Amino acid sequence: MAEEQCIEREDRFDVDETIYKTFNIKNTINIWHDILNRTENQIADTILILNQRINLPFVVFKRLWETRSVHVCADGATNRLYEYLQEQQADNNNGNKDLREIYLPDFIVGDLDSITDDVKQYYFERGVVILEQHSQYAPDFTKCVKLILLNANSKEFNYLLQNNRQKENLGIDSDHGLLDMFDQLRQEHSKLPQRVDVLALGAIGGRFDQTINSITELYNARRDNPEMTLNFLTDTDIIMLVPKEGTSIEYNNDSTSNRIFRDHVLGNCGLLPIGEEVILTQTYGLKWDIINWPSSIRSGRVSSNNRFASRDKCYIQSDRDIVMNIEYYPDKLANYIEE
């Protein structure tokens, strides 16, 4: 194996474009355009809300909601959305506008053992599609993923959505219906025709086993559903699975306020080898760049507390997919959106 290197960069530097052009860039991820301010919104792009308290500034929540077309709540997450909008109603002086009426989810999915009766009734009366799925072979997160992909790609599901609105559960079996429909969709299509971008809120936090399941969903999505891009947003972090091929992470927004976004909205970052050793072949643009660096939790060699040093982008290449977290400051993001 080639020699390991760790290179400490200046706090801010401009990338050498002659070097950057030599990299084997297979993927590009722009933190602003692709995640926080989805500017190329596709018809199936989705916000998925999971069962953790929502603490985002309302201006951030509003931007995320409005830049994605489909909105899904997983069971008890519906309570969280309802409560959050009630709180924002009181805090933001919205007058006669009932935020709960404005920000209605399109779907509520799960075994429905956590959603309260009054919240369920509220959304039922307003035409929200509520899909009860009792199967214990998949957590609610997975059921939601299947629903999102069916909604984007299944003619059968969309027929039921258009014609079975008056039927309980759209006429779908309440045990394994969504799972069976998705298996059938996969048999019909080796590659799904419609790509989907999903941003999940509330995936990390709370019970540790559910957090680990959420991380598992990142890997499952890449392996089983390559037509879907899945990212997480927490109160402190953007979390993604960086593909093993060379990836350019960009944090510019093509405006004069680019440096404000990078310097004031974004904080530290980490490359996290969860579950297996990852060889970080090369990074370029971080405060501490590494070359041919074996990284694993067991060995204690983890690139945490790193940060972006390049002014607008960095390059990451590894022999396996690797989880990346990027710290951000919600209040500063809210100010940035409002400017």
Automatic annotation (TrEMBL):
Q: Which SUPFAM superfamilies match?
A: Thiamin pyrophosphokinase, catalytic domain, Thiamin pyrophosphokinase, substrate-binding domain
Q: Which Gene Ontology MF annotations are present?
A: ATP binding; kinase activity; thiamine binding; thiamine diphosphokinase activity
Keyword Nucleus recorded: no
Q: Which UniProt keywords apply?
A: ATP-binding, Kinase, Nucleotide-binding, Transferase
Q: Name one Pfam family in it.
A: TPK_catalytic
Q: What is its EC number?
A: 2.7.6.2
Q: In which pathway does it act?
A: Cofactor biosynthesis; thiamine diphosphate biosynthesis; thiamine diphosphate from thiamine: step 1/1
Keyword Cell wall biogenesis/degradation listed: no
Q: Where is the Thiamin pyrophosphokinase thiamin-binding domain?
A: 256-322
Q: This protein is called what?
A: Thiamine pyrophosphokinase
- Record organism: Maudiozyma saulgeensis
Q: What is the lineage of its organism?
A: Eukaryota, Fungi, Dikarya, Ascomycota, Saccharomycotina
